[in-house]
Amino acid sequence: MGCLATTHTKAIQKVDVPTFDWPIAPFPKLRYPLEEFVRENAQEEARCLEEVEDLIVKWGKRGKPVAGIVIEPIQAEGGDNHASCDFYRKLREIARKHGCAFHVDEVQTGGGSTGKFWAHEHWGLDDPADIVSFSKKMLTGGYYHKADFSPDKPFRIFNTWLGDQTKNLFLTEVLKVIKTERLLEEVKRSGKVMLQGLYELQTRYPHLLNTARGIGTFCAINVKDEATRNNLILKARNKGVVLGGCGVTSIRFRPALVFKEHHAHLFLNIFNDALAELN
Amino acid sequence: MGCLATTHTKAIQKVDVPTFDWPIAPFPKLRYPLEEFVRENAQEEARCLEEVEDLIVKWGKRGKPVAGIVIEPIQAEGGDNHASCDFYRKLREIARKHGCAFHVDEVQTGGGSTGKFWAHEHWGLDDPADIVSFSKKMLTGGYYHKADFSPDKPFRIFNTWLGDQTKNLFLTEVLKVIKTERLLEEVKRSGKVMLQGLYELQTRYPHLLNTARGIGTFCAINVKDEATRNNLILKARNKGVVLGGCGVTSIRFRPALVFKEHHAHLFLNIFNDALAELN
């Protein structure tokens, strides 16, 4: 229920499920490429941070104090929305100031696809996240947290396998491969090719594509409307490339960590062919 | 939340978790050995079935129709409480009559420890359960259900790995071993030794033990009080045997499926030594 209450994923998954009464703060809607809209984006982020603090104060007065802030390093299901490192550092300060736990959801971003093992490493926090959750690239689901957040009673959180050793074996292997095959460096290299390629495609097809963005291979691009987006995904699939949508008109790219520069070139050619058919 | 609302496990796990408003019917409190108290037990079961039907009617009138009945073939966390096959068949009829789904929770009983693959196979139902959940012995958690209970929309139930193939690999292997090593037959043999041994021990230590009961190796025995029960578990542990409590004064036995007759003898000797120290 907690997951479904926070997610921005498909509405069908929330039907008939009760939800929690909690405040949702706006995530900054930035203009891309980020380096061209620094001043406008800083204003938008300041607006959102102010709203976060207002909500915390307002809910506190209503006798429903905000226990924690849940935030993604890139708002993924919501449409691959980015925010600056400065935004996240200030958000962390707001959490600390008001005694809210700071939970960084790295389910999609964690495990290396942004070129660092944790996407929030990009931020340069002076006080680490209180709780970090992860999954996807790490072939399991889990979380880690500061010692203060341990349950205060034995058996408070308990299940049959207490962590599932078999999943830990997988995780150990995943971590080993990431390290020995230097996959974070691969991600940086192939991510650069990807993003550069997406910039070129949106220049070539400005009436179809806009707002290319990304860190590492964690990239996305917007299509002019939802129907065209879905059609483009279909055309790519018929050429052997599986893409996923996010938000209303975005396509998100989530290649595996073993995705290399030549894969990026291969993909960009196929994507170009699919776009040419729509042209 | 649904799991925590239905379980009879440790109270600490429910603290601070919201719960659902739903009716809990009494589970029969039978006298053991079952074959000695047939008439009394049939009366107790009839009382409980009547209460189930009353609750369904009462909640229906209140505009909160009962969607389903959740039942274990042996009420496990509640203290290893048994009921007759006749009780379960009648309960299934009540569910059908009132349009309630009939969900058999085989998390603890499923996978072979009662000498049949599913404990509810002992009942001889003419209409199968609508939903069966399982875990434990099957090294994964899952459920199966009648086709009518499939979600009516795509993506209604969805997660990243859609069933987790790695768990299916484990499950395939578990099923293979159960079959090729004829583990259900082993369970019947070692379970007979276990239960016979527990009967003998409660005759030898009548002031400490009572109410030995079980099907296959899924056995339990009651200790005179909670403190003595916990002390007995500790003494057994110090002799190399890990036991678990259930209910307030019960000890439950949940050996692995590879538990053989000689393991049962080995255990009974150690358990006898632990009891002798308490004597």
UniProtKB/TrEMBL annotation, chains A, B:
Its cofactor is pyridoxal 5'-phosphate. The keyword RNA-binding does not apply. Signal peptide: none annotated. GO terms for cellular component: mitochondrion. It comes from the Eukaryota. Keywords: Aminotransferase, Pyridoxal phosphate, Transferase. GO terms for molecular function: pyridoxal phosphate binding; transaminase activity. Belongs to the class-III pyridoxal-phosphate-dependent aminotransferase family. This is 4-aminobutyrate aminotransferase. It comes from Aldrovandia affinis.
